[in-house]
Each structure stands twice: as structure tokens, then as C-alpha cells.
Specification:
alpha+beta, four-stranded mixed beta sheet, about 30% strand, binds flavin-adenine dinucleotide
Amino acid sequence: MNESMARHTSIRVGGPADLYVTAEDKDQLEQVYALAEDAGVPITLLGLGTNVVVGDNGIRGIVLILAGTFRETMFSGLQVRAGAAVRLSVLSRECASRGLTGLEFASGIPGTVGGAVFQNAGAYDGQISDVTESVCVFWPDEKRAVWLSCAEMRFGYRYSVLQERQGVVLYLNARLGLGDPEASLRKIEEYNARRRKSQPLSYPSAGSVFKNPPGLSAGRLIEEAGLKGFSLGGATISPVHANFIVNTGNATAKDIRMLVEHIKNTVWETHGVRLQEEIRFVGT
Ligand SMILES: Cc1cc2nc3c(=O)[nH]c(=O)nc-3n(C[C@H](O)[C@H](O)[C@H](O)COP(=O)(O)OP(=O)(O)OC[C@H]3O[C@@H](n4cnc5c(N)ncnc54)[C@H](O)[C@@H]3O)c2cc1C
């Protein structure tokens, strides 16, 4: 009860959730949704909270986290079944060590498999949809889980069908290529070195704030608008990478919201481009 969400999000802001609940398996998940429906209580599903900014007044109702069996991974030949609560970075490294190639791009993305499928997370030369065969989704409104093909997931740039219709990713079936562990692990080290150089990893953040508009770089537009290093309260546009807002110690969600609006207005005025958020604001 009254669980501070600043403790459960990578940008370290946010008020309390009324109830913070973990579901260890599908039965528990169904029970939580049934009880919440009976009580008329909303559910907010989160993974590792690395792409969200929770409001300063917190989240009314239940924050639901997957755990237990959803943290398991199974390997069979070139196929991998990963639970939604598996850390993407761990999965990436484990695949690489087993000589399975295709997920190296994901090694530095700090969220879960579920969050990555929801958002079609990607970096460098890859995105989750590249390796997806099918996804097991629980539809709360139908009270059942179904397997959706990659086509049915309607993946796009940082987009999946789950952004239109609320569903819970339970498992990802991925198909990888036959690779060489040493080459894959080397690739991971290279990607991570590039990340350490180009991203403000020593400060709390929620990753890239805006999607890249077609053919453009959101970071470059923000930098060209003269906003690098600009602060509102404890929220600062990173001097390292302008598409990151970092919490320099005492940021509030309100600071971040205001800074996001300021960036959008300034980039519109200077470049005539409308930026669209990649991060998600949740709660109040
Ligand atoms: C330093 C840093 C670097 C980052 N780099 C990248 C990057 O290179 N590429 C990239 O794409 N992202 C990046 N991100 C953003 C983030 O890590 C990804 O979007 C990640 O996939 C979010 O996963 P999560 O578990 O933290 O999701 P959360 O932030 O907890 O949730 C994000 C959304 O996913 C939904 N969700 C979570 N779990 C499920 C589920 N099981 N079923 C359905 N919906 C679910 C939530 O409801 C929410 O709407 C970065 C973030 C940080 C902090």
C-alpha cells in the first residue's frame, strides 16, 4: 500500500501507488484482474519502469508487476520463449553466450521483455519485431490469453497493437540465428561502449524522450534549438544527449512535463517539426 513509485522507475520521480501487486503466474494475473473488475479499481501495468514518468500524486488503484514464472526463459534450438518479466539485457547476453544471434542490439535496453514488446524497443540495427515469431497476450476484457503472430502485433517504429488495445504480454517466442558466441558478445561490448559514450547513463532518466521524426534525429533538433543543458527545476536536458531528460537530484514529474512541453514548443518554433513523446506519463 502507498508504494512510492520513485523507487520503481528509472527516472526516480513519482508519488505513491495505492496498491503495488505482483502476479507470479497466469492464475494470479487472472485473479488480480477479476478482483479489480469487481471492485472497480483500475490497473496500471508496469515492467521495470524505464520508459515512464509517474505523476507526483502517484497512481490510483493497482500497479501490477509480473514476476515468478514470467521471469523464466526456455531455449529450444533457434527458438527462445522468454517470460514478459525477463530483463532484456539478460536475455540478450544469454542468447549471445549460447551462440544465438539477433538480440545483441537489446543488451543495453534496461527494461523487460514485456515493455520491449509493447513499445517494439530497438537500438542500433535492430528492434524486437525483427526476432518475434509470436507473442502470448492476455486480454483482460476477454479474460483469456491468445498467441498473436508477429503480423498480428502490427509492429511499427516504437509501436505495437498493444498501444491501441490494453493487453498484457505474458511470453515472447523469438527466433534467432545461428551465431558465434564470441562474435555476439564482442558486438554487445561494442554497442555498450557506444552507449556509454553517447548517453548520460550516470543520471536517472527514462531513455529517449521523443521518437525520431521520419528522416530526422530528435536529439539533433533539440540541440539545434539551443536547448542542450537547459533546466527546469531538477529536470535537465542532458548536455551529453539532448533527447534525454535527466533527473539531477530533485526533479518532479511536473518539472519533466513542463520541460517536455517547452522542448516541443521550441522545436516547433525553430524547425516547424512536431515532436512526439516516446516516454509515457502515467498516473496523476
Ligand atoms: C538509459 C536508458 C536507455 C534506454 N535505451 C533504449 C533504447 O535504446 N531503445 C528503446 O527502445 N528503449 C530504450 N529505453 C526505454 C526503455 O528501456 C524501453 O522502452 C523498455 O522496453 C521499457 O521496458 P520496461 O519494462 O521498463 O517498461 P515500463 O517502462 O515499465 O512500461 C512501459 C510501457 O510498457 C507497458 N508494459 C510493460 N510491461 C508490459 C507487459 N508485460 N505487457 C504489456 N505492456 C507492458 C507499460 O504498461 C507501459 O505502458 C531506455 C531507457 C533508459 C532509462
